[in-house]
Each structure stands twice: as C-alpha cells, then as structure tokens.
Amino acid sequence: MKRMRFLVAILIMWLFLFYNIERLSASIDITGIAYIFVPVMAGLTIFVSPLRKAPLWALLVVPIGVFLTLKVIGYRQWGTPLPLTVTEVCIIALTTVLSRRVSEGISEFEQAVAHISIGRISKPTESFSTGQTAMYQELKRARHHRRPLALMAIGIEDDSIQVALDRMVQEAQQAMMKQYVLSGVARELSDILEDYNIIARDNDHFLALLPEMTADQLADFADWLHQVLFERTGVALQIGTASFPEDAMTFDGLVKKAVREMEEEMEDANHRPEYSPQSQRLAVERPYV
User: Fold this and answer.
1) Among 4, 72, 91, 211, which has the minimal tally of Cβ within 10 Å of its Cβ?
2) pTM for the full model?
3) Alpha carbon distance 251, 149 (integer Å)
4) Residue 162 has what pLDDT?
5) Which band of pLDDT confidence, cut at 50, 70 and 90, is reported for residue 113?
6) Coil, strand or helix: which one is 40?
7) Beta strands at 126-127 and 198-202: parallel, antiparallel or unpaired
8) Residue 79's pLDDT band (boundaries 50, 70, 90)?
9) Topology adopted by domain 126-279
C-alpha cells in the first residue's frame, strides 16, 4: 500500500506540473491536442483492464503514433514546432509509464482482495445454501441405489492461525486472516478432492460430500486429508464425519452429526495446550481414490 500511495502521489504531482508548465517557462506553448491527449491516456491506462496486460512498448508506440497523426492534421509538425513536439511526446510517454505503474498496483491490490474474499480456486466452493441442493440429490441417488456415501464437516482451529497485533486491531486482523486461510483451504480442497465430490462452505467451515465413500474408508481418508491440508496450508483441521446409511438416513441428519463431531473435536483440541498436528503420524498415501 505504501508503494501504491507513492505512485499515485507522483502521478498527481506530475499532472499538476504538466498543467502549469507554461507558467514556469514562457517559451513552452503546449498544444491543445496534448492537453487533451495526456489525461485521456492516463485514464485509459488506469481504468481499461486489457491495457494492463498490453506490453509497455505498445502503450508507448501506438498512442504516440496517434498523437503525431492528430498533430499533423492540425499543426505543422516539422520546422519550428519540432522541439515542442519532442517535448510533448516525452510528456505523453512519462505520463503513460506512471499511469501503467499505478494500474499495476491497482491490479495487485484487486488480486489480494479477491484472494482474501473468495480465493483463486479452480473449482469454486459454493455456499451451503446453494450446495446443499446438489448434496441432497446425491443422497437421494445413494439411497435409491443403496450405495454408500459420506459427509465431512471441516473446520479450522483458531489457535493455529497466528497473529501478532495490538489489542485494538486484533479482532479485525483475526477475522481477515481467517478469511484468507479459509480461501486457501477452499482452494486446496478443490484441488485435492475429485470432481464428483461436492464442496460447500457454511460460515467458517466446509461440508464435503463424498459419493461412494464407505464408513470403513472414511476414517482413513479424513486422517489423510488432515495431514495433507496441514502440510500445504500450515493450519490444523478438525474433521467431523457421518456415513450413510450407518449414521443417518436423511441429509439433515448427516449434516448435524458431522458438524457436531467437528465441534466436539475443536472443543477437545482447545483443551489440549500441547496439541500439535505435526505430532500426529498419519498416512502419507491417499487411502481412497
């Protein structure tokens, strides 16, 4: 953010200097085309997203070519105005470069905000209100065909999220960090679980529906997922599980059982001060495909 403030301040001061350059030197007489072209280029470079990906040389060559063409139409380009034309071209180039740097800073900030709020994931994690419909349909399929099915409630231990802030901002920072970690966990879950698995986020935890997962396979798979997520994200998970038809016959019953078990695991972990996910020796091979 400091770099962003610095770039914006430099751009503002430069534009202020440009519009007052004739007061500083009576020999300089900027043409009307330049006065219009400079702010237009600055605005386009900052606000038009595709221009952020364009090569810098293209942002310099094409606008300068357009500017010279317009100037040929309205003014004499060669002869006496040549030094002025060179000055105006340099002004346009410098303004474009500064605007490009500001645009890149805005892009970086937008990417950071997107990562914190929703995460950059290949398979989007739906909200529970949306995802539960697909989960319920999958349960109906399992019930109809008498196939196994499992549900996991996945939460993050607050103690595993390390923050070091003043007391006045600690709560806000904790909330922001938790959103950042949740987006990272969502991304990893989308990468690890198969496409036919259904993942949904419900407030500060996730629900993952695993078709064809039996109760015997579920415990080993949960342990494996716990270990893999800890290695990739550095946060400890508490996973509650429920199996159909062993634990419940309805979707609500599966959700309640998995969430209740997850919450109990979290409560137990909070009462174990020496608990460390690194101390657990879990399977390193995926137990279920």
Assistant:
1) 72
2) 0.44
3) 11
4) 54
5) low
6) helix
7) parallel
8) very low
9) Alpha-Beta Plaits (3.30.70)
